């Protein structure tokens, strides 16, 4: 028959196991929302759209100082212009195509190869914060989705390359931002008007998404902590009853 000390040890082990499980769930729930992400509500195949890159700083001690987005090469984009970000400078780099492509807008000989953002001194994205970088790009290719590998550089020299693709249904550690492109007809039904305020609307929508993700993450932390406490209390009570305490 188990003694009181052995029951207590068992209780502690079970409590520790519950705590570890709760932490694992929380990391899985909040990790995905912290990755570099791209949205484009008005991004349609064959058209122009505003791409919003959301870049959070995941480091606890360093700020994000540089962001470099590699544009698609197999399905090139002819032109791109960036929305100014206070405290940051942007550089759009073009390259010549090995073989020109004929599009609805004419013969395409060059494409946008990369877009780099660099923070001025003291203007980086601090720990616990994020920044949005908006790009008006097009014409967008006739493809279901586009991947934008992104290199994130921190003030301590650390670099994180968001360039991995999903395999077997599991999300990689550093997934590349992927944008789904809507067919023109679908886009017209969902959003019949696209105005000059599209960048502001995209920024507002993306900020709302980030805020919602943060609220969900905090709620998950609170609920998990309560669950662990209640489980430990129940186990300790059961242990006391079994020992006659």
Quickly describe the structure.
The protein has about 240 residues and is of the alpha+beta class. Helices cover about 35% and strands about 30% of the residues.
The helix content, as a percent range, equals: 25-40%
Q: Based on DSSP secondary structure assignment, what is the total number of beta strands?
A: 11
Gyration radius from CA atoms, angstroms: 24 Å
Shape: globular
**Sheet with the most strands, sense and barrel status:** 5 strands, antiparallel
Percentage beta strand: 25-35%
CATH class of the largest domain reads: Mainly Beta
Average pLDDT taken over every residue: 76
Number of domains: 2
Class computed from helices, strands and strand pairing: alpha+beta
InterPro entries: TAT_signal (IPR006311), YcnI-copper_dom (IPR012533), YcnI-like_sf (IPR038507)
Organism: Amnibacterium soli
Protein name: YncI copper-binding domain-containing protein
Pfam families: DUF1775 (PF07987)
Key words describing this protein structure:
31% strand; 5-stranded antiparallel beta sheet; 2 domains; 4-stranded antiparallel beta sheet; 11 strands; alpha+beta; 245 residues; Immunoglobulin-like; 3 helices
Textual characterization of the structure:
By secondary structure, the chain is α+β, with helices and mostly antiparallel strands. It has 2 domains: 82 residues; 159 residues, Uncharacterised protein YcnI-like PF07987, DUF1775 (Immunoglobulin-like, Sandwich). Helix content is 34%, strand content 31%. It contains 3 helices and 11 strands; from the N terminus they run αβββββββββββαα. Strands 5-6-3-9-10 form a 5-stranded antiparallel beta sheet, with no helix packed on it. A 4-stranded antiparallel beta sheet has the order 1-2-7-4, covered by helices on one side. A two-stranded antiparallel ribbon has the order 8-11. A hairpin with a 2-residue loop joins strand 5 and strand 6. The longest helix is centred in the C-terminal third of the chain and has 46 residues. The radius of gyration is 24 Å and the shape is globular. It starts with a helix and ends with a helix. Pfam families: DUF1775. It comes from Amnibacterium soli. Keywords: Membrane, Signal, Transmembrane, Transmembrane helix.
């Amino acid at each position: 028959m188990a003694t009181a000390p052995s029951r207590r040890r068992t209780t502690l082990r079970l409590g520790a196991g519950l705590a570890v499980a709760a932490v694992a769930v929380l990391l899985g729930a909040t990790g995905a929302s912290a990755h570099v992400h791209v949205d484009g509500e008005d991004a349609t195949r064959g058209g122009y759209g505003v791409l919003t890159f959301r870049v959070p700083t995941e480091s606890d001690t360093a700020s994000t100082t540089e962001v470099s987005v590699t544009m698609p090469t197999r399905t090139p984009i002819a032109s791109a212009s960036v929305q100014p970000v206070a405290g940051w400078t942007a550089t759009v780099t073009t390259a010549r195509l090995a073989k020109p492509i004929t599009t609805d807008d004419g013969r395409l000989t060059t494409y946008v190869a990369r877009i780099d953002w660099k923070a001025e001194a003291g203007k980086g994205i601090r720990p616990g914060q994020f920044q949005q970088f908006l790009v008006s790009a097009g014409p967008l290719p006739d493809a279901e989705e586009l991947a934008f590998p992104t290199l994130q550089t921190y003030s301590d020299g650390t670099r994180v390359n968001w360039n991995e693709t999903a395999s077997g249904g599991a999300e990689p550690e550093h997934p590349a931002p992927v944008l789904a492109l809507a067919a023109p007809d679908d886009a017209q039904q969902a959003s019949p008007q696209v105005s000059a305020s599209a960048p502001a609307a995209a920024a507002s929508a993306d900020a709302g998404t980030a805020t919602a993700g943060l609220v969900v993450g905090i709620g998950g932390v609170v609920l998990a902590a309560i669950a662990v406490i209640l489980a430990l209390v129940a186990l300790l009570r059961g242990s006391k009853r079994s020992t006659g305490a």
